[in-house]
Amino acid sequence: MRKIKIAVVGIGNCASSLLQGIQFYKNRDPEDIVGLMHWDIDGYLPSDIEVVAAFDIDKRKVGKDVHEAIFARPNCTKVFCPDMPPANVKVSMGSILDGISEHMKNYEDDYTFLKSDLPESSSDDIVKTLKGTGTEILLNYLPVGSEKAAKFYAQCALDAGVALVNNIPVFIASNPEWADKFKEKKLPLIGDDIKAQLGATITHRTLTDLFKKRGVKLERTYQLNTGGNTDFLNMLNRDRLSSKKVSKTEAVQSVTAQRLKNRDIHVGPSDYVPWQDDQKICFIRMEGKLFGDVPMNIELRLSVEDSPNSAGVAIDAIRCCKLALNAGIGGILHSPSSYFCKHPPRQVSDDEAFRDVEIFIREYSTAGITA
Predict the structure, then answer these.
(1) What residues form DSSP beta bridges with 92?
(2) Is the pLDDT of residue 371 over 60?
(3) Of the candidates 300, 193, 177, which has an alpha carbon nearest to the alpha carbon of residue 251?
(4) CA-to-CA distance for 281 and 286, rounded, in angstroms?
(5) DSSP reduced 3-state for 257
């Protein structure tokens, strides 16, 4: 059987949903599949993804089997696949750098950061693990604002000769210097900042594109988000939010008929509500003018479980990355990045991105099976 060997940095809610999903869709009837954009990509099914290495820094996760660690606090996402067999992969101690915000080190209750007693891994340690486990693709699930840590692991991927899927808003794929490094090594790169399956960004983009196509002038808009997971707790530190705000704002600005002034658009995380756990609530307001300069507005409330919403996209990103590895393609995978991420190097409409990624899959599939 063909497997896709991945390593995961950051065993939080998103990693939990991804790993649960890999098991959840195992041995499923392909005629009765819900929640996937593609069941089969060139013969690779979701269950063909295999976690062979994992890294975290919290003592509640480090040293445990990764299939046990995904349910450890402070993780709080929905458990939709409780019967996870042992993965026989222990979570290794990672490198901290700026991967944890200062205010989370002494937070109350289950959200207090508990550093592992094990020494931090060096880049040599991590590269050795990636090589020794046969890792093909590294997934970055670090917290927002982990600039130094994200670049540290990106360099580890380069040194180990593995592809990278950058799921967070630290600009790796959209930074020409990093993009060139992956191209030189002939290693695929997808990024930056994963876009949810049906979340705030894709919904906001779709409505913005609808305004443009229907000749409605968009004058001002906001997107406000609240949640109770560690991602939202982390983002209470506004110093860590600059790249996240740029990523989310540009995702909307890029599909407007005419770019809005900074004063007229606000897109970004808004507040932390502990009892929401992994439930994300988004409020969108859009104001514009119709025929005859007649004013109109839309207000929308969206409620989703945040982490499973991204896992369905990550499963496709991993498999597209594998196609590129099989074909010997390195550097930015533009079509998958534009479709799967909020801040890709090349912003296009979602319709165009969808068409391009379907072409990408057909072009680089060897088995000729896509669905």
Answers:
(1) 55
(2) no
(3) 193
(4) 17
(5) coil
| Enclosing H/E stretch for 54 | strand 49-56
Give φ, ψ of 67 to 5 degrees. -75, -15
Q: If DSSP codes are grouped into helix, strand and coil, which group holds residue 44? A: strand
**Closest of 314, 336, 338 to residue 327, by C-alpha:** 336
With CA atoms as reference, report the closest residue to 258 among 220, 284, 294, 223. 220
Using CB atoms within 10 Å of the CB of residue 213, give its burial: 0 to 12 exposed, 13 to 18 middle, 19+ buried.
exposed
Of 19, 226, 233, 244, which is closest to residue 150 (Cα–Cα)? 244
Structure pTM?
A: 0.94
Lowest mean pLDDT among 230-234, 299-303, 325-329: 230-234
Within 13 Å of residue 69, how many CA atoms lie on the same side as its CB? 30
Identify residue 294 by its one-letter amino acid code.
V
Does residue 367 surpass a pLDDT of 60?
Answer: no
Tallying the residues shown for the chain, one arrives at 371
Cα dihedral value 158, 159, 160, 163, nearest 10: 0
The alpha carbon torsion through 180, 182, 183, 187 (nearest 10 deg) reads: -170
Contact between 339 and 345 (Cβ < 8 Å): no
- Cβ atoms 83, 38 nearer than 8 A: no
Going from the C-alpha of 331 to that of each of 22, 145, 153, 344, 362, the distances in angstroms are 26, 24, 16, 13, 19
pLDDT value for 369: 43
- Name the band, by pLDDT with cuts 50, 70 and 90, for residue 109: low
∠ Cα 69 124 173 (to 5°): 75
Q: Angle 142-339-155 (CA atoms, 0-180°, nearest 5)? A: 35
Could you tell me the pLDDT band of residue 107, with boundaries at 50, 70 and 90? low
Query: Which strands sit side by side in the sheet containing 217-227, from one edge to the other?
Result: 265-272, 217-227, 279-289, 295-305
The three-class DSSP label of residue 362 is helix
**285, two tokens:** 């307001």
Q: Could you give phi then psi for residue 231, rounded to 5 degrees?
A: -60, -45
**Residue 364 clears pLDDT 60, i.e. is over it:** yes
Token pair for residue 247? 């990523």
